[in-house]
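Good morning C.,

I know you're traveling, so I'll keep this short. The sequence:
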Amino acid sequence: MIASALRGVLCGMGIVFAASGAEWQARLSPTESNLNAIASGKWQTVAVGANSTILTSADGATWRRVEIPEPNLTFNAVVYGNGWFAIAGDTDYYSSDEGTNWNRVTGGFRDKTIYGLAHGESRFVSVGIINSNLQPAIFADSGAWPQRTATTSNILRAVTYGQNTFVAVGDRGLIMTSLRGDVYTWTQQVSGTTANLRAVTWASSRFIAGGDEGVVLTSPDGITWTVNAPASFTVKGLAGSRSEVVAVGVFGSAGRLHESPDGTSWPGSATQYASPLNAIVRHASGKYLAVGNGGLVLESVVTINSWTNPASSDWQENVWSLGHLPSIDDTAVMLTNAGWKAVAIQASTAGNYANSLRVKSLTVDAPTDSATLLLLNYAGLSRTFTPVNDLIIGPNGSLLSYYSAIDGGTLQVAGGRATFAEFAQTQFGNVYVTNGAEMIISNGWFAANQTIVSGSNATAMRQFGGTNRIDALRLNSGARYYLSGGSLITRSLDIWWGLPHLSGLEPSPFFVQSGGRVETTLLFTDNGAVYELTSGVLAANSIRLGAGVRLELKGGIVASNQSLSFSGGTLLLVTNGDYRLGHLLPNGGRIDFGTGRKTVRFTGVGYPPPVLDGTVTIRNWTGPASSLERDRFYIGDDSQPGDLRSVYFIDPEGYPAGLYFAKALSDGEIVPLDPPPLHYVRSGDQLILTWPEGFRLMAANDVTGPYNEVNGAKSPYPVLFTGSRRFFKLWPIF
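The tokens, ready to paste straight into the viewer:
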């Protein structure tokens, strides 16, 4: 296959240089099928394409093909997220946690063709068409996978995630955005072009889209777009970091590749290849991998500056593989050699070798039976350690920052530990804590655009003090967040399992608050998540409890709450107290009073018309209503007429077992409605039913229901003995 791999280079050699001087090498490919997409994650890269082709590589240089039973599928998209690879195309959808063993998930994919996949906000989003009617659509794994969340006028070809926003692009310049991870709400934006858009990415602090005739658009937020200098070819793939952007595509029957400092201009000339290039990805090491027709695989050759000392020493020691201290010109810096060691950045390092503290990418790890610690040891706050693109902490690596400043692109704690203490000041764009890793904030200040904690129940964030300010925090797949002190400030705190088709494989995510303060605009929980409040303050404007969720109030204070909505979850009142919450929005779920005596107060209940109300059930309520020792449940005046019809008591104490409607006392307290008896008397061949005002007559053919209202029935109501057997009961009129 080496001839197939090398034939993609016009010069006839395996190595070429792009116009910028970067070196690219064609790699041996185990396929001649067209490769359509590529993704990297978990130190693994996956490329997919025609004829059920799935290729994997651990280093980007050596590739092998993974066989699946279905021989003739076309895969158009692949993405890595939440610890999993996902691929999709003309029929089925497959997932894998390591890229080797793939699980087929048919579900609703059989009638869809998927062109693009993205992951963000703990969700997978795909774009494509519904085959039965050729309707372009957007799909997401929100409650079902794939669930259609929007339809569009033109076909969308690609989708990406960045800056808490999904951006999808497609034919005739179509751009759709979903802000703040709301995958149900998509807005079409003005692109400024009618050219077909085929690629989009978030890089260099902006969204970049490209397509036919070399069109290139950029946007700082996904909403306002600018048409920039074009590339010299149809752009089919884009990738980048905070410091560069690379585009690949096709010109005639040839492939082209071009590098840019920021995606707004394309200096020099593109490099040309014999086969079209279809996709590109940036690897964790800082290099790029591109794929194309005929199985073409390209790898950018990187300059890696590695620490060589097996013993502990200071960062500025002359023990680096390239013979110089790390610099921004190195593609990547690696602290990954054997030995038990600490590499220290001291105050003297920051004062005398400040230029060495700005690097593109840094990896801290070690082989088995070794360990590497990156120690920022009171380096001070006036000079900043800046991993511009990535700081990666591997399973045998750790980071300890004492009174030091870090300002980086992405922090990946993948199995190791990162600790920020002694008033450290830290800021990243995105943070990923995965694979049993632990991240600790003991005090100081930490900030990030987005933090995702996922993996087994050993994966955890622990905060003992300080301030953790994150725009969007996600916990899923068994992850834990323990807050015992300090403040967590976030726009969105999202706790849920992740992909629905993985439900049951890993334990539920937990947020355990035993102190401190949480401030969030939205607390969203779903798929079996648990939030436990034992002490401290939970200040959440909106709380949403999804399927199988438990919000356990064991103490502490719930403050600033404007609404609490149920979609199958449980509010569990564990400790005696007076709980004050906002507007109750019922759509299936329960309030469990547990044991003891509790008081819970809502400002109102129900949705404004024309939205239909769901229900919420009250369980373990201690009564009866005449008892002074009863549980207290209040609903304020902020309600729609008749909204008590959504509240039911199940087996309340002091009443016969069963389901009871709710009624309001004069002070707004809600208690079970003890229905009056349905009176009857026989009169000849009729049964005369009578009942008081405020109730309607319901009938069913079976005692267990279903019961339907008897149209026009008024007390007294005659029932003939002829006909089939029927059962009757009363239902309140709200």
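Safe travels,
E.
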